Amino acid sequence: ISDGQRQRILLARAICQQPEILLLDEPTSYLDIKYKLEFLSVLQELQKKKGLTVILSLHELELAARVSDRILCVDGAFVEQVGTPEEIFRPGHLSKLFQITQGSFEEESQEMELAAVKGTPEVFVIAGNGSGRNTFRRLQREGIPFAAGLLWENDLDYPAAKALSSQLFSVPAFEPVPEELLEQAMRCMDGCRKVICCRESFGTLEDAQKRLLAYAKARGLSERNAQNCI
User: What is the pLDDT of residue 225?
Assistant: First the structure.
Protein backbone atom coordinates (compact mmCIF):
# COMPACT_ATOMS: atom_id res chain seq x y z
CA ILE A 1 0.00 0.00 0.00
CA SER A 2 1.06 3.60 -0.49
CA ASP A 3 2.37 5.87 2.27
CA GLY A 4 -0.88 7.82 2.11
CA GLN A 5 -3.00 4.68 2.55
CA ARG A 6 -0.82 3.56 5.46
CA GLN A 7 -1.23 6.95 7.09
CA ARG A 8 -5.03 6.76 6.76
CA ILE A 9 -5.08 3.26 8.32
CA LEU A 10 -3.04 4.44 11.31
CA LEU A 11 -5.30 7.43 11.77
CA ALA A 12 -8.42 5.24 11.59
CA ARG A 13 -6.98 2.85 14.20
CA ALA A 14 -6.31 5.75 16.55
CA ILE A 15 -9.81 7.18 16.15
CA CYS A 16 -11.53 3.78 16.56
CA GLN A 17 -10.10 3.44 20.07
CA GLN A 18 -12.39 6.33 21.08
CA PRO A 19 -9.74 8.20 23.09
CA GLU A 20 -10.41 11.32 25.15
CA ILE A 21 -7.16 12.90 23.97
CA LEU A 22 -5.58 12.35 20.57
CA LEU A 23 -1.92 13.37 20.07
CA LEU A 24 -0.90 13.39 16.40
CA ASP A 25 2.48 14.18 14.85
CA GLU A 26 2.17 15.54 11.29
CA PRO A 27 -1.02 13.49 10.67
CA THR A 28 -1.69 14.91 7.21
CA SER A 29 1.70 13.88 5.79
CA TYR A 30 1.35 11.87 2.55
CA LEU A 31 -2.35 12.73 2.27
CA ASP A 32 -3.65 14.49 -0.83
CA ILE A 33 -6.07 17.41 -0.61
CA LYS A 34 -9.20 15.25 -0.63
CA TYR A 35 -8.10 13.07 2.28
CA LYS A 36 -6.68 15.98 4.25
CA LEU A 37 -10.08 17.66 4.15
CA GLU A 38 -11.91 14.42 5.02
CA PHE A 39 -9.59 13.66 7.94
CA LEU A 40 -9.68 17.15 9.41
CA SER A 41 -13.47 17.25 9.03
CA VAL A 42 -13.75 13.96 10.98
CA LEU A 43 -11.53 15.32 13.77
CA GLN A 44 -13.56 18.51 13.96
CA GLU A 45 -16.82 16.55 14.15
CA LEU A 46 -15.43 14.29 16.91
CA GLN A 47 -14.24 17.31 18.83
CA LYS A 48 -17.70 18.90 18.68
CA LYS A 49 -19.84 15.80 19.28
CA LYS A 50 -17.61 13.68 21.55
CA GLY A 51 -15.58 16.36 23.31
CA LEU A 52 -12.36 14.88 21.92
CA THR A 53 -9.23 16.89 22.64
CA VAL A 54 -6.91 16.89 19.63
CA ILE A 55 -3.28 18.01 19.83
CA LEU A 56 -1.57 18.30 16.45
CA SER A 57 2.07 18.86 15.61
CA LEU A 58 1.99 20.65 12.25
CA HIS A 59 4.33 22.43 9.87
CA GLU A 60 1.45 23.19 7.47
CA LEU A 61 0.64 26.70 8.62
CA GLU A 62 -2.47 27.10 6.49
CA LEU A 63 -3.99 24.02 8.17
CA ALA A 64 -3.02 25.23 11.63
CA ALA A 65 -4.76 28.54 10.96
CA ARG A 66 -7.96 26.83 9.81
CA VAL A 67 -8.46 24.02 12.33
CA SER A 68 -6.91 25.25 15.59
CA ASP A 69 -8.63 26.82 18.58
CA ARG A 70 -5.23 27.53 20.15
CA ILE A 71 -1.73 27.45 18.64
CA LEU A 72 1.54 26.93 20.50
CA CYS A 73 4.63 28.22 18.68
CA VAL A 74 7.99 26.64 19.45
CA ASP A 75 11.31 28.43 18.97
CA GLY A 76 14.02 25.82 19.36
CA ALA A 77 13.48 24.23 22.76
CA PHE A 78 11.28 27.04 24.09
CA VAL A 79 7.63 28.03 23.85
CA GLU A 80 7.59 31.29 21.94
CA GLN A 81 3.87 32.10 22.19
CA VAL A 82 0.47 30.51 22.80
CA GLY A 83 -2.64 32.11 21.37
CA THR A 84 -5.59 31.99 19.03
CA PRO A 85 -4.99 31.89 15.26
CA GLU A 86 -5.85 35.59 15.16
CA GLU A 87 -3.13 36.34 17.72
CA ILE A 88 -0.52 34.11 16.07
CA PHE A 89 -1.12 35.05 12.42
CA ARG A 90 -0.47 38.74 12.89
CA PRO A 91 1.68 40.59 10.34
CA GLY A 92 5.37 39.81 10.65
CA HIS A 93 5.14 37.36 13.56
CA LEU A 94 5.74 34.05 11.79
CA SER A 95 8.25 35.56 9.37
CA LYS A 96 10.30 36.57 12.40
CA LEU A 97 9.74 33.25 14.21
CA PHE A 98 10.92 31.20 11.21
CA GLN A 99 13.64 33.74 10.38
CA ILE A 100 12.54 34.03 6.76
CA THR A 101 15.25 35.74 4.71
CA GLN A 102 14.48 34.35 1.25
CA GLY A 103 11.09 35.08 -0.29
CA SER A 104 8.14 36.07 1.88
CA PHE A 105 5.21 34.76 3.89
CA GLU A 106 2.01 36.76 4.28
CA GLU A 107 0.43 35.89 7.63
CA GLU A 108 -3.03 37.26 6.91
CA SER A 109 -3.47 35.42 3.60
CA GLN A 110 -1.04 32.59 4.47
CA GLU A 111 0.52 32.97 1.02
CA MET A 112 4.16 32.03 0.53
CA GLU A 113 6.10 33.50 -2.38
CA LEU A 114 9.64 33.22 -3.70
CA ALA A 115 11.87 36.28 -3.86
CA ALA A 116 10.96 39.01 -6.33
CA VAL A 117 13.14 39.59 -9.39
CA LYS A 118 14.92 42.89 -8.82
CA GLY A 119 15.47 45.49 -11.50
CA THR A 120 13.66 48.01 -13.67
CA PRO A 121 10.26 46.62 -14.73
CA GLU A 122 10.25 45.14 -18.22
CA VAL A 123 6.57 44.18 -18.17
CA PHE A 124 3.55 45.95 -16.70
CA VAL A 125 0.71 43.70 -15.49
CA ILE A 126 -2.82 45.02 -15.19
CA ALA A 127 -4.63 42.61 -12.89
CA GLY A 128 -7.14 42.52 -10.04
CA ASN A 129 -9.73 40.22 -8.46
CA GLY A 130 -7.27 37.32 -8.39
CA SER A 131 -6.70 37.35 -12.16
CA GLY A 132 -2.98 38.10 -12.08
CA ARG A 133 -1.36 35.78 -9.53
CA ASN A 134 -0.39 33.07 -12.02
CA THR A 135 1.12 35.66 -14.34
CA PHE A 136 3.12 37.23 -11.49
CA ARG A 137 4.55 33.80 -10.62
CA ARG A 138 5.29 32.93 -14.25
CA LEU A 139 7.24 36.16 -14.72
CA GLN A 140 9.14 35.49 -11.48
CA ARG A 141 10.07 31.99 -12.68
CA GLU A 142 11.28 33.44 -15.99
CA GLY A 143 13.42 36.02 -14.18
CA ILE A 144 11.54 39.02 -15.58
CA PRO A 145 11.10 42.09 -13.34
CA PHE A 146 7.61 43.51 -13.63
CA ALA A 147 5.32 46.24 -12.32
CA ALA A 148 1.73 45.65 -11.24
CA GLY A 149 -1.30 47.86 -10.75
CA LEU A 150 -3.55 49.48 -10.12
CA LEU A 151 -4.59 47.43 -7.09
CA TRP A 152 -6.52 48.07 -3.91
CA GLU A 153 -4.76 46.68 -0.85
CA ASN A 154 -7.63 44.26 -0.14
CA ASP A 155 -7.55 42.81 -3.66
CA LEU A 156 -6.96 39.06 -4.09
CA ASP A 157 -3.93 39.85 -6.25
CA TYR A 158 -2.36 42.26 -3.78
CA PRO A 159 -0.33 39.83 -1.56
CA ALA A 160 1.34 38.14 -4.55
CA ALA A 161 1.91 41.47 -6.31
CA LYS A 162 3.44 42.96 -3.17
CA ALA A 163 5.80 39.99 -2.80
CA LEU A 164 6.80 39.46 -6.44
CA SER A 165 6.68 42.78 -8.31
CA SER A 166 9.65 45.11 -8.54
CA GLN A 167 7.22 48.05 -8.52
CA LEU A 168 3.62 48.08 -7.28
CA PHE A 169 0.99 50.76 -7.73
CA SER A 170 -1.67 50.38 -5.05
CA VAL A 171 -4.10 52.35 -2.90
CA PRO A 172 -5.73 51.62 0.47
CA ALA A 173 -8.92 49.56 0.34
CA PHE A 174 -12.06 51.38 -0.80
CA GLU A 175 -10.17 54.58 -1.55
CA PRO A 176 -10.24 56.33 -4.96
CA VAL A 177 -7.16 56.14 -7.17
CA PRO A 178 -5.29 59.47 -7.06
CA GLU A 179 -4.62 61.05 -10.45
CA GLU A 180 -0.96 61.36 -9.51
CA LEU A 181 -0.68 57.59 -8.93
CA LEU A 182 -2.30 56.88 -12.30
CA GLU A 183 0.21 59.19 -13.99
CA GLN A 184 3.09 57.44 -12.18
CA ALA A 185 1.82 54.07 -13.46
CA MET A 186 1.64 55.46 -17.00
CA ARG A 187 5.23 56.74 -16.80
CA CYS A 188 6.34 53.30 -15.55
CA MET A 189 4.42 51.71 -18.42
CA ASP A 190 6.31 53.92 -20.90
CA GLY A 191 9.55 52.20 -19.84
CA CYS A 192 8.18 48.66 -20.25
CA ARG A 193 8.47 46.62 -23.43
CA LYS A 194 5.08 44.98 -22.92
CA VAL A 195 1.82 45.31 -20.97
CA ILE A 196 -0.15 42.20 -20.00
CA CYS A 197 -3.81 42.69 -19.17
CA CYS A 198 -5.31 39.84 -17.16
CA ARG A 199 -8.79 41.29 -17.09
CA GLU A 200 -11.65 40.65 -19.49
CA SER A 201 -13.66 43.54 -18.06
CA PHE A 202 -13.53 46.16 -15.32
CA GLY A 203 -15.99 47.10 -12.58
CA THR A 204 -17.91 50.34 -12.46
CA LEU A 205 -15.45 51.86 -9.96
CA GLU A 206 -12.34 50.92 -11.96
CA ASP A 207 -12.14 53.97 -14.19
CA ALA A 208 -8.41 54.41 -13.49
CA GLN A 209 -7.73 50.81 -14.56
CA LYS A 210 -9.69 51.35 -17.79
CA ARG A 211 -7.68 54.47 -18.53
CA LEU A 212 -4.43 52.63 -17.85
CA LEU A 213 -5.35 49.89 -20.33
CA ALA A 214 -6.44 52.47 -22.92
CA TYR A 215 -3.06 54.20 -22.48
CA ALA A 216 -1.26 50.89 -23.12
CA LYS A 217 -3.36 50.15 -26.21
CA ALA A 218 -2.72 53.61 -27.62
CA ARG A 219 1.02 52.86 -27.48
CA GLY A 220 0.69 49.36 -28.90
CA LEU A 221 1.98 47.73 -25.70
CA SER A 222 -1.03 45.74 -24.52
CA GLU A 223 -1.70 42.04 -24.98
CA ARG A 224 -4.20 39.66 -23.46
CA ASN A 225 -2.75 36.85 -21.40
CA ALA A 226 -5.87 35.25 -19.95
CA GLN A 227 -4.63 31.68 -20.40
CA ASN A 228 -1.89 32.36 -17.88
CA CYS A 229 -3.93 34.50 -15.50
CA ILE A 230 -6.96 32.47 -14.45
Answer: 55
Instruction: Spell out the domain ranges in the chain.
Output: 1-57, 69-112, 114-228
pTM of the entire structure?
0.78
The DSSP output letter for 138 is H
- CA distance linking residue 157 with residue 205, whole number of Å: 17
Return d(Cα 149, Cα 157) in angstroms, integer. Answer: 10
Instruction: Assess contact for 95 and 71: CB atoms under 8 A.
Output: no
Strand partners, 73: 81
Other beta carbons less than 10 A from residue 143's beta carbon: 9
Tens-place pLDDT, residues 50-95: 888 999 998 888 888 888 999 999 988 899 999 999 999 998 898 8
State the number of CA atoms in the 13 A half-sphere of 72 facing the CB.
8
Question: 160-199: per-residue pLDDT in tens?
Answer: 999 999 999 999 999 999 999 999 999 999 999 999 999 9
CATH tag for 114-228 (out of 3.40.50.960, 3.40.50.20, 3.40.50.450, 1.10.260.40): 3.40.50.20
DSSP conformation class of 178: P
Cβ-count burial of 201 within 10 angstroms (0-12 exposed, 13-18 middle, 19+ buried)?
exposed
